[in-house]
Amino acid sequence: MDYRACWCTRARYTVFDSHYGDGAAVRVLTDVWRTDPHRSPNLHIIALCDHLMPGFHRMLQAEPGVTLDLISAPLTDALAQLTARVDMFRLHDIEHAGTDFARHVARVAAQDACLQAQDLTQDQVAALTAQGFVFDADGRHARFASRKPRPPAPPAPERRAIVLGAGIAGSAAAERLCARGWQVTVVDRQPQPAMEASGNRAGIFMPLLSKDDNVPTRLTRAAYLYALRHWERLGGIGRAIEGDKCGVLQLARDAGHADVQRAIAADTSLPPDFAEWLERPEAEALLGGLPAPDGGWLFRGAGWARPGSVCAAMLDACGGRLERKLGVGDVRIERDGEQWHLTNEHGVVVARAPNLILANGAGAAQVPQAAPLPLTMLRGQVSHVPADMVPKLPVVLCREAYLTPPSGGVCSAGATYDADPNPALSPASHAENLERLRGLLSDPHAAEDAPLAGRVGFRCVAPDRLPLVGRLPDFDAAGTTERLRDVPRHPGLYGLLGYASRGLIWAGFAAELLAAQIEGEPLPLESSLVDALDPARFVLRARRAPRGPQPEN
């Protein structure tokens, strides 16, 4: 199949390969693309790969214009969850995949998409033919000739945006958009980035585990693995980013909880570098003899990082495409024609662009278009404990609380989770952190008389504890809409909100997802998870919520 004849007229050329194998075919395709002066500006390859953890994996490439997504899932399931418009299918090693995949191939096929096949069964050829593919006489090449109209491609966006918020969410948004050639203005009321919820000394990065591999687990796994790869490209933890991939040991709460964790370990094939269950002797040996009465999960690739250093690395990666407007105070947001305008308290325009991304956490409640979203501001106080008052840990230790290894002579312990709006350090919150720390260490005298020191931040939390990623809904115009895709949206207005206590992990991946949505690219996440993050989910939930007693006529 001559790729050159196909991709020369397309701004993005997307290939789906049913078997990644050792990657040789992908490397050949990339080489052909690289050497063709008439190539499409963007090559996007999606391939099934059976030696990765379940789900979608976006593998950022060093070469501009090339994107690689690897999917660990059966063929039919992968295609059913794919949000993309595919120009070329390479189907091989699928003799035992049945025929249900054919309708999903047709759903994601671009007009005149090409198909290259090897060893298809007669039933598979018939199923693809019934979906609109016309095969050559050799039965190995086909073209999608369905007369069903394809949804029109969205118009190319004007690549200028304002990002409101210079914390972890906003910095990630700026970096992912600038990487695609956008001009971005980051606006923040504070004089420096990462001065609010992203200003802690240490944030913990680690995955989640669950017996049913539920939505938060799958989302956090995808975001965690993406973050590890992304941070390496930004210079690495312990180098460009302040922190340490020292590992995290998550202790079981009690014997019953440990039994559940053992069942997860027995039921799933988790790579040991991702998660390994340690029984009490192994866990206590790791901790140098500290008690671990019920064992725990060791996440070897996890650790801690200073969020502000992650923000700095992402903003620095933007280069000359980024403009910083910091220390502007509170701003007023208005839509004027095709542009969003941000003005300061004196009525002076701070920034103007056709696209606006709200990445300002709890501050989004002050934006009229975002005010109907059910976001809550929750206070979190971290205690800074002198390192000589607690045992020296080789890993981050956590259960209901966490304790980091020392950095600059200080360990971070916390954090509280309450609705108190007071930004000042609270002796009661400090005492709560120290009490939980003592329980974590099984030492009633640990950090005794530790001085009041730490930091308070305010998390932005949604009712379902999942982030909000995508175009913001227009609640007033929603009417009786029952489907996410039909919910009316504010033009050019997007949200990266509700990160709760997982912003360090979620930020980069959520920004990548949003940038892909805006650009009309294949999405790096299963469609069911994309829907679970859609801010418009709260429009539908509000409509479906039971209504109270109605007055009698």
From TrEMBL:
It is an enzyme of class 2 (transferase). Its EC number is 2.1.1.61. One of its GO terms (molecular function) is tRNA (5-methylaminomethyl-2-thiouridylate)(34)-methyltransferase activity. Keywords: Cytoplasm, FAD, Flavoprotein, Methyltransferase, Multifunctional enzyme, Oxidoreductase, S-adenosyl-L-methionine, Transferase, tRNA processing. It holds the Pfam family DAO. GO terms for biological process: methylation; tRNA processing. Transmembrane segments: none annotated. SUPFAM superfamilies: FAD/NAD(P)-binding domain. Residues 161-516 form the FAD dependent oxidoreductase domain. One of its GO terms (cellular component) is cytoplasm. Gene3D superfamilies: D-Amino Acid Oxidase, subunit A, domain 2, FAD/NAD(P)-binding domain. PANTHER family: SARCOSINE DEHYDROGENASE-RELATED (PTHR13847), TRNA 5-METHYLAMINOMETHYL-2-THIOURIDINE BIOSYNTHESIS BIFUNCTIONAL PROTEIN MNMC (PTHR13847:SF283). NCBIfam families: MnmC_Cterm (TIGR03197). This is FAD-dependent 5-carboxymethylaminomethyl-2-thiouridine(34) oxidoreductase MnmC. The lineage of its organism: Bacteria, Pseudomonadati, Pseudomonadota, Betaproteobacteria, Burkholderiales.
